[in-house]
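Attaching the record inline, Q. Sequence:
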Amino acid sequence: MKKFLSIFTIWAVVMFVFTFLFASFFFDGDNIYWSSLFVSFIISVITYAFVKTLDRIDELEKRIKCFDENK
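Structure, as predicted:
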């Protein structure tokens, strides 16, 4: 959960900066910042899924190396 919150915080900051610098000029409305928060949540869920997949792949590689060394 701590890893997800850190990923979400990073994406939220990136999206707020992007919204402040670029999107607020193109889109008009008060809900643009809430929309960027929602988009950052979706992107952070996808990023977290990829990170967890990479962690599982690393664990499998370690197990395979351990089996190769025992032969």
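The first helix runs from residue 2 to 26. The chain has two helices and no strands.

More tomorrow.
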